[in-house]
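Hi L.,

You mentioned the student needs an example of a multi-chain input paired with its predicted structure. This one should do, with 449 residues in total across all chains.
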Amino acid sequence: MSKLFYDDYIDLAPIEKKIKEHVKSKESQEEIYKLIDEILHHRVVGCILDRLPSGDHDQFVQHLSDRPHDTGIMRFLGDRIAEDVVEFIRYEVHKLSGEILEIIHETSAPKTLPKKLKK
Amino acid sequence: MNPAAQTDSSIVEDLRNKLKLKSLVTKKDFDDKFADFNKSLKDRNVSLTGLRDHSAKLLTAGALASTLLLSPPLDSTKLVPRSPSDILASINDKNGLPSVSPATKLREAMKEILPETIRPLNDQEESYLEKVITEITGIPTKATLEGEHLNTTYGKIGAEQHLIRYPGDTAAAHTPEEGEYGSDRPDDILKEGITPGLGAWGYFASSRDELSEDLVETEKWYSVAQTLYLPDWNTRQPYLKNWYKYRKLLIINTDNGKAVVTALADSGPAAFTGKQFGGSPEVMDYLGGERYKKGPVLVFFVDDPDNEIPLGPVEYNEGAYSLNLSNLIE
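Structure written out for the whole complex:
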């Protein structure tokens, strides 16, 4: 099983679709999924730590190491953060989605020479 | 550089390198900003990079019991359920036999056993569901078969495209023939198109001529599960890849009780899609209709050692139904 406490609030399906368009090998697709997943974990946990009072960080570490799948962590965070936790996680994921789509676009767009080098 | 010279492999290499760089920068920023947090995690032998693997290991080891500590009381009461026969008997009492349909029974039993929110199920929940599903649908199901267990048995399914069956296969070649499922509305079956690349097990056949009827059915009723996230996927090869190839899975839409026997023919979806399973255009159409793109499902192995159970819809809701409670193993 591979569930994380915030999985219900992310949906980067358009990124998966774009990757499948450009990356045909299953092994390469899976490698890229894992890279994106790593970036996602850091960005989501980072945006939580930005808002969670430092006195609660130890307890958050404990929950994350003992039961990272548990959606109860969202309630733990909701009780300690004034902002809407789902809302700011979704916003962070949305921002990240834009950044990754831009990388995919840059990578897959046909590359042309600068005008001055063209004959 | 001639645009045509930019090959697929160079695009993949470029994309991989850019994402690796972004990953490094993101991790460095995080480490600089939250050094104490990172150290605390490290002291517990956990890293954010390996968070999904860590979760998979904990859940595989049965750490689900600890979920109770953070779950709402409403959810936890469901973890002390009545026996499967009691659940089904109460549904009969409430609705009055014999008028209640098998589909209603299955829906109500699932409502009683399943948690409020989608999450991996514990052994007891899976065991109860195996009994209820087998009893009502007649399909022998197992959450764990021959020691193997999917990464979850309760999750969200998403719509997939047709898979390429042989070199040169096209979306149009998947048009249902007269009398086949969806032949009365082929556009609905074809609208998702065909995948740009191959499924996890490659071509189904080396040519159109080699594509048997069985393989046509396999692609038509194919499913997708996250084998790539199984904790032992990389260490138990090629056994696991062979074991999972075209493995029969029963998928049940928990909203309407519709059930279909599928063959696992691709790995995915990516964890960051919020989905855990995928279904072919035919599978999704049967489970939820032409507009069905995503929804909650149960996915169990079909225990069919002699390969007697056909792929496709399970029409268990036909005709009068008499529940045989004595078949339930307590």
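You could point out the following to them. The radius of gyration of chain B is 22 Å. The first strand of chain B starts at residue 141 and ends at 142.

Best wishes,
N.
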